[in-house]
Amino acid sequence: MEHSPAILHAKHLLFLLGIVLGSGMLAGFIARLLRVPDVVLFLLAGMALGGAGLDVINIKIDSTLNQLLLIFGSCYILFDGGASVRLSVLRNVWPTLLIISTIGVLISSFVTAYAVQFFLGLPFIVALLLGATIASTDPATLVPIFKQVRIRAKVAQTVMSESAFNDAMAAILTFTILGIAMGRSEFSLSDSLLDLTKQAVFGLAGGVVLGYLAAVFIAHDKYSFLAEFAPLVTLMAVVAAYLSADNLQASGFMAVFAFGIVLGNKDLFGFKMSHEDELKLEDYILTTSLIMRIFIFVLLGSQVNFALLQQYFWGALGVVLVFMLIGRPLVVFACALPDRRAKWQIRELLFMCWTRETGVIPGALAGMLVGMKAPYADVIAAVTFMAILLTIILQATTTEWLARKLELLETESSLETGG
Fold it and tell me: Which of 195-199, 390-394, 415-419 comes out lowest in average pLDDT?
């Protein structure tokens, strides 16, 4: 029996999706046995099954399917992270959060740029472009890690929130520098600040509005006619928050994070779900987030270009080590120490210095630069892949160990009291 090309293609995609989910399930089981964050094993599974390994998974980085999974998966994981944030905690650390998500991105970009000049000899504007590309932290990695490793709330929620808020800043900086590097525009500080403010305001506003409406429809005393469909409401609202903000030239990731914060703190606005509906919603979010993690990191691992990494290995390694061991500590201490309100302890700052995984967003930015034929795009992609591999494999696997050494793990009593 003959099948049309469309049917054959659909069957091939179903096979690939089945392989991704199956390998992710096995990797997650092994991760639980080894007591390491599952994203690490998902990434390694993808590398083993990708083009450089068994060549079973061959979904291209610029394909529609890959971009769909990347965008929606990041959005849903980010929503899950926002729902885990407690406003009572962020109230005391907002100055740190604001500074580290803006000025911190600039500091990281410039430190990395000087390292790129030293190790790879690129022009400074291209080096700065590379620094901006990898400057943002990754919510798709950090949120799951802090779900699995119970870190002190103030530290965990500050780092998770930073990973949401600094995406807008890094994206704006990346494309501003790209315009200069390709001779299309000149840098304008006022225009860049205006663009950042617009992205932040519209993203936050859209997320807050949709979060409040979702809370009304699923948890209001009189108007919760969609309580039974709460999981579907969150699914649709995540899509709506991202697309509405993106169409307004705002940060879609910031919008879904704000949506999650409002819905996760709905009790502060007087909304309350029944215990049964609350458990059903939590179970749905947990399962959907796991599926999205599997897709994102197995595919990300399968798309690592080892030939490119080998070509620029030592230079990329030097840049990423400076990025991790000099740039990040400088950002944390410069941005958090002046915040007397937060009363940061040295051990908390040391933990934040080590916890800054690079992942989905920098990977997507690097892919876009390659597609746009940006100057030295192959070098930028190589360093970005190196940053993703090193930060996830080294930092994610040692998060729990370091938190235990610094006495930052939550105890049962502190969890019960919310501290």
Answer: 415-419
